[in-house]
Amino acid sequence: MMIIILTSFLFISLLVILVRIVKKLLWTPFHVQFMMRSQGIQGPSYKFLHGNFKEIVEIKKESINKAMDHLSHDIFPRILPHIFSWKKLYGPNFLYWYGLQPELVMTEPELLKEILSNRNNNYPKMDLEGFTKKLFGDGVLTSIGEKWVKMRKLANHVFHGESLKSMIPVMIMSCETMLGVGRFMKIKKLKTAFGSSYSEGKNIFQMLMKLASLMSGNASKVRFPGIREEEKIGEDHNFGSDFLGKLLEAYQDNKISIEDIVDECKTFYFAGHETTTIL
């Protein structure tokens, strides 16, 4: 009798597990795909387990191995060849699969305008997880709700037009010492936000870019810890008028934590390298 009960329990458990696996790997993707297509959103068909990942890899490999005919600023077909190809094939809005994760691509200006305005919070920010969140932190770029309002208010105060006027001498000095156009953006961001020189921030830039490169190359393989720094705040309350100074001042007033300071530094160091417009 006991053997029959154990056998039945094992059979039911295996059946439940099998149903969940089938639902996750087959039913849900095909259901999502069917619902999107019923609304006119086409795209490459979902493939078991990998979605369209293999197609993406093949298209990117083909694009990289193909020499450019001439130098051009129109590099979209080269850096995102799968998006470029599928846009021509399926239209401005389409759905594709990155493994089990559906990715909805929209390129219509009016839709993008509605999404980016996001006045009714219908389009929340992407929820970063794991090593990606450790890399970018939870600063003004990724935070939401009250924390975003608090951090954005600090940034607004420092980067307001009147506040930036006092930074003009620093920007002029940065321009005079710049060695290239790309470096100029980094210098200006560093001096304006953190009051440091390019040489002082160069090592941090290199570490962050190396970490970003590792993250990109190992996204589907292994996880690794992000950068974490501990700062000790002294008793001197004269932190300066730059962004870092305002962050330290807010920390001194118990408005933000050390983690918030580190996250904001990550955000603006990355912004100095790849200027973003979604802040």
Automatic annotation (TrEMBL):
<keyword id="KW-0560">Oxidoreductase</keyword>
<protein>
    <recommendedName>
        <fullName>Cytochrome P450</fullName>
    </recommendedName>
</protein>
<dbReference type="Pfam" id="PF00067">
    <property type="entry name" value="p450"/>
</dbReference>
<dbReference type="InterPro" id="IPR050665">
    <property type="entry name" value="Cytochrome_P450_Monooxygen"/>
</dbReference>
<dbReference type="GO" id="GO:0020037">
    <property type="term" value="F:heme binding"/>
</dbReference>
<comment type="similarity">
    <text>Belongs to the cytochrome P450 family.</text>
</comment>
<dbReference type="InterPro" id="IPR036396">
    <property type="entry name" value="Cyt_P450_sf"/>
</dbReference>
<keyword id="KW-0472">Membrane</keyword>
<keyword id="KW-0812">Transmembrane</keyword>
<dbReference type="InterPro" id="IPR001128">
    <property type="entry name" value="Cyt_P450"/>
</dbReference>
<keyword id="KW-0479">Metal-binding</keyword>
<dbReference type="GO" id="GO:0016020">
    <property type="term" value="C:membrane"/>
</dbReference>
<keyword id="KW-0349">Heme</keyword>
<keyword id="KW-1133">Transmembrane helix</keyword>
<keyword id="KW-0503">Monooxygenase</keyword>
<dbReference type="GO" id="GO:0004497">
    <property type="term" value="F:monooxygenase activity"/>
</dbReference>
<keyword id="KW-0408">Iron</keyword>
<dbReference type="GO" id="GO:0005506">
    <property type="term" value="F:iron ion binding"/>
</dbReference>
<dbReference type="GO" id="GO:0016705">
    <property type="term" value="F:oxidoreductase activity, acting on paired donors, with incorporation or reduction of molecular oxygen"/>
</dbReference>
